[in-house]
Write a structure and sequence with these properties.
heterodimer, A: 308 residues, Rossmann fold, 2 domains, six-stranded mixed sheet, four-stranded antiparallel sheet, B: 371 residues, alpha/beta, four-stranded mixed sheet, 68% helix, elongated
Amino acid sequence: MREIIECVDLTKKFGKFVAVDRVNFSISRGEVFGFLGPNGAGKSTTIRMICGILKPTSGKVYVDGEDVWKNPEKIRRKIGYMSQKFSLYNDLTVEENINFYSGIYGISRERAKKRKRKIIEIAGLEGMEKVKTSELSGAYKQRLAFGLALIHEPEIVFLDEPTSGVDPLSRRKFWEMIYSFSRKGLTFFVTTHFVEEAENCQKVAFINNGRIVAIGSPQSLKENLGEREVYEIECSKLMQAFSLLEREGWGNISIKGNKIRVLSNEYGEIEKILDLLKKEAIDVLSYEKVLPTLEEVFVQNVKEAQLA
Amino acid sequence: MLKRLSLLSSIFAVSKKEFIQLRRDWRFMFSLLFIPAILLILYGYALNFDVKNVSFGVIDFDRSEISRDFVNSLRVSEYFKLKDYFYDYKEGFSFLQRGEISFLLVIPEGFKRSMERMENISIQCFIDGSNSNKGTIVLGYLNAYVNYFNHKFLKKEFFGVSLRIYYNQKLKTTNFLIPGLIGFILMITTVLSTSLSVVREKERKTLEQLYVTPLSSLEFSIGKILPYIVISLLATLIIILFSKFLFGIDIRGSYSLLFLSTCLYISCTLLMGFLISTIAETQRTAFLLAILTSLLPSILLSGFIFPIENMPKIIQFITYFVPARYYIKSIRYIVLKGASLCSFSYEILSLLIFSFLLLILILRRMRLGLK
């Protein structure tokens, strides 16, 4: 079976500005794909080209083996989309919102009834069908928007920063919901600001300045840092140590609890670091080599891409 | 067939949603229905070019029964009101200057004698011309009275033109103004109503969601405008009832023609508002654009008050882009003349073409918004 989404040299220019630059990737059916990048990196431009809203300057997008721009309307029946603003009509009730979208997709009356029950179940809004959407909490709005993105039973769902403005517990629940649908074969394309959330994805792509700088499973991305290693150092005078290392040219440092995390530039650099700390009369209590977090990988990749 | 059914179902879904939203926003709904009627009352009473109860003063140097007779024939009419008799010019002019009288009649000595001898004699009249419109009308009335008086006094058969005015026998300005006023008011309220509709969806980001659905620009536009057509028609009905019972305007022509032209007109103006809505990015801009494109042109360039024939050629050309121009002519023809379709078919056709062009522009605009 072909991949459900394939981007081939996808490019979008706005005048002289290149928003998306020869992007290539593919997503398999049932995968949860995470799309990460700073604001203005080209995330939403890419999504809009895949959804058939924005025409690529060059390159191709295939959804389910079909060129999106040959028949955008057909593609739109295969995709669901949920934006960070949840795009619900706040002055309509839960039920009226659902009815509106059933109508737009031309869903038959019989099927619409079943879908309505299903969406209300997904959103956990049983008995609240007549409540105005403006009166719902953020988490309920999010789940209703999610349900509405599924109303026409699409094959791929795009979630554009779906968890912004939602509390951590609801966020956790939301991801569980995504997994349960992904197990049934639904494909998810998720953009997010939260790097730790990308750990939930099976495949992650980092985009910066319109280019994909790294792509792969979270595990493989962490292992592919080359010569670099991450150390956690427990020491006295934490802040002093932090600024010392920063001054001496280690860019990727962070503080975690009572430890400092340092990403080394090359293999075996820990001796150099320990010497340096000793000179400044900072006592090292313990140190150990650890696996990098996705955030460190991300920051490193973006930095390298900027240098290149 | 299936395709057509789904088209209807999407249009219906959009209309239904829009209608529910309008119903919830009852202040807006109320404004759409009754603001036109309120405007009609305000403008209907305020805008009146009829000249009545014009006060005047007289300096009578003749003091004869004939001169008194002449003054009396003026004062009993509903148009003039005698302020006072004065004894010299100075006193009379001071009243004229203060605006307490609008004209001053001076009847010279020997008025009676000349009349009896059938000699030519002139009476003097000083008219306050600061309101030139009123002054001209007063002058016209006065001339008519002088002729009438001559005729009565001399008891002679004159050779004269017998005038008979058609369509607005009393030449009452309300008869002329109210139909135009309806066109003017409808233009403002309809353009405003839809001008906010798409921008609101832009601001609330719901439009973004619709872009990824199979909903087409045509389905969206038609579905969104339909509820406004219904409401605007209701508002028109209310306004027509008001003009019948408050201003005594009777519709001489056919109701179905009035319905047809009103439908076309409001579709046209609603589409105009809709186009503004697709262009503007915020409700504030949309509101300003709507006011600018509807209020001024429909007062100044529609023939509502100022005849288009009197305008410079270039301005006349611009009036072709003001839909109110076509409707105001049609509604005057229907209401006042009871005219048949063929006498304003050009106007109806223009409205039709206008709506069509607007729809094309909107569809282009909406598709542009996608890219």
